[in-house]
Protein 1
Amino acid sequence: MPFVLKQYSAIQGEKIQHFLINNTDLSGSQSQKLLSKNRVFDDQNNILKNGDTINCQTIQVAVFEGHSRGLKPIFETPDFAVFDKPSGVMVHPTRKTTEYCLLDEVRYFFGDEASLAHRIDAETSGLVLVAKNKQSSRQLKMMFEHRQYNKEYLALVKGQVLTDLTIEKPISKADSNIRMKMTCDSEAGKQSKTFIHPLKFNESNQTTMVKAIPVTGRQHQIRVHLDSVGHSIIGDPIYGVNESIANEYLCKTLSDEKRLKFTGANRLMLHAHKLSFSYKEVDYNITSKQEKTVFSKFFK
């Protein structure tokens, strides 16, 4: 498990933030971060906050320690690296019980200062950019905030896409019982644009492989935009299906057989295929190696 509980003998009467800085191997910034994220506990597992006075025998701190399952970066410089993430792997741990995520590999290879420059959904496979140190982290995250990069995805969608599409619809949180679901129905949403280019049509199962280029970076943007024009992504358990299927998926009760029947695949057929950007006056164009593996079942 990535989170490990470390125990320290407490000094009663001392403020918790002073104790962490003076009696552990944590820096001041690390201590504040752990306290703000509710990862410091007394010996009764009560959460300790900044400013609390210690009144217990031991202090427990939940720290993230990465481990490897064999996923290695496909490209690397002194400042950053790129991983080609498989579908099903989360990029960050969502709770203390998360057994494995991409951040495990990042910290295993590059240490505690390394971080993800951006995120993709757990079920989306493909390229993820990683900063190796704090300085490159600031630069790369700013690059993503200012859209100073190009990302290209491949997706397998329902139906035949005949021509290039520019989908320019605002995206907002859906008025739905499905948590995380987004919609294009509200004009109050954030302006969003996606370019779609058809690549290959499979007449036997009526699916099209498309190239998707998001101009903006909204949550679930490619998924919700494609669904809004009647071409939901194969394997999507939230868009293009009824709410009962989406609820079963989110509650982790949707069987593989039922998902395959209603969505067409047991994973989201969306793949982060290319990533292009300039860093320190050098242009980088990185391509995933997973395309044939991801889509081979549908296009032989």
Note: The CA atoms of residues 58 and 149 lie 48 Å apart.
Protein 2
Amino acid sequence: MTALGLIRSLSLAGSLLGGGLTAYALAEARAYTLRRVTVPVLPPGSPDLRVLHLSDIHMTPGQTRKQAWLRGLADLDPDLVVNTGDNLSHHASVPVVLDSLGPLVDVPGVFVLGSNDYFSPTLRNPLRYLLPDDGTRHTDSAQLPWRDLREQLTDRGWLDLSNARTTLEVRGLRIGFAGVDDPHLGYDRLDLVAGPADPDADLRLGVAHAPYLRVLDRFAADGYDAILAGHTHGGQVCLPGIGALTTNCDLEPERVKGLHRHPASSAPGDPGSAWLHVSAGLGTSPYARIRVACRPEATLLTLVARD
């Protein structure tokens, strides 16, 4: 083979490999997956509690496959729904999100909002996502109808935990909640929710969109049994043997998704520690609908009694 022929062959092979990887990444972004996780966090003798954790839906009206998959989650018959934000990616998405949630909005639920509930996504270089955070927040784009989303959810009975504390009884268990508005935008007001968690609650849950360490540290120190968050997309692009390349916050990549402890070195029962569940979420930016080794997900958390 001549040198020119070799160059052409290598170029063709590279094009085929790149095209195959792109096709895989596009397909994986639509491979919606239900995770099931058991968390030993309830008082001894308590009944199991089924909590559906939803995050980062990033809905646009044309995403019909995602909408159908979301509707099917009602068949899980959860006792509680926790939505950790970034539901929207389009100005017309609020009724689509509500329709996709279907009967789930009639289940006891709590929520916080994320940056992509507030502001429209914009076309950006996706490689910037992999660079260190320079603090830039795109709050100059058009606002999305987040007020409408909040009103629709609260009218159906879900509780808005944005910089708020509250309690809710589910299956005879008293649950004490604390939540913050989006830490990625700096909207969190920890001063409004700080202080010991409800001592009379059977379960204490902290809720945030983005799992920034300042928020996790505060909730753990205040005695919350578990913390639920999203935002990271599980890294969105993960490499074999390496894992996630970024978390899009100051959480370390090793805890970019799934169930862990916070602080990371703590064990169940350690004072000032909590379980941490980070959802990899269901969506992506509408301008870069790809995932690599990180399927979009929702999680059914089964909370069980501690040993």
Note: The longest strand covers residues 33-42.
Protein 3
Amino acid sequence: MKRLRTALLALLIAGRASAAPATPASEFQLTLRAPESPSDQRQLYLNAAIQLALDKTVASHGPYQLLNSPPMNKQRALISARQKTQPNLMILAGPAEARAVGSLAPVRFPLMLGVTGYRVCFVSPQAREAVASTRTLDELRQRFSLVQGTGWADVAVLRANGFHVTESPSYDSLFRMVAKGRADLFCRSVLEVQAESQAQAGLPDLVLDRTFALHYDLPHFLYTHRDNQAAIERLTEGLQRAYADGSLQALMRQHLQAPLQFVELHKRRLYLLRTAPPPDIAFDYRSYKLDLPGAPR
């Protein structure tokens, strides 16, 4: 009888276990870099593009959850990605920037579609008239100083093309440096500059030059720790799907419409800068380049 009771009890426990609901699979989590300050809107398109890619892969990869990192500058964010301090932390960076940090791998898709290569510049009050009177690239790089964020991909490009560049680790301080005449120019992507002009309206001496634009090859990719292969594969697949059906290009054009009207590229002199081939990128990222309405040919 004792053996029978034991067997019946085992059957009862097994029946209860099988009747219990299965534990749901853990939801995929991905971390976005938080803005550095309340006025920082550089992540708007980037975050929307990441969400679009994840939406394109829900049916094949399951649901997802987006998290925000603590506020940090790019250099600190790249180090955090290397240290895996947040789940699947994704940082937009140039290949040389990521390579310098180590242990990072790219999502092999240029989700900025070549737009970051077009740059217009905030100019200091003291240099405004002199900049407007320049007519050659040589004049520009010999007479004026530039400021950029510490470790930004632009720094190496600009220095390689003969510009004097000062670096600062604080995003908001870059605008103040130009407004106060501590540097002559702070050059920004055409996608970013309108929002930054509005956000920095409290600096009355900060003005946008209207006479020239720079163009250089500046590919940026999402980077994360190389162990996060599932996240890399999902985002690559999602971005490819969004590009193939045109939704990614439509998203970029939506974010570009007002900025392009604001910067009026067609009215500017365009200076082309030389760039070295990016390290560790062995695919044709230039084939995804988006033509900008009004951009000089």
Note: The first strand starts at residue 28 and ends at 32.
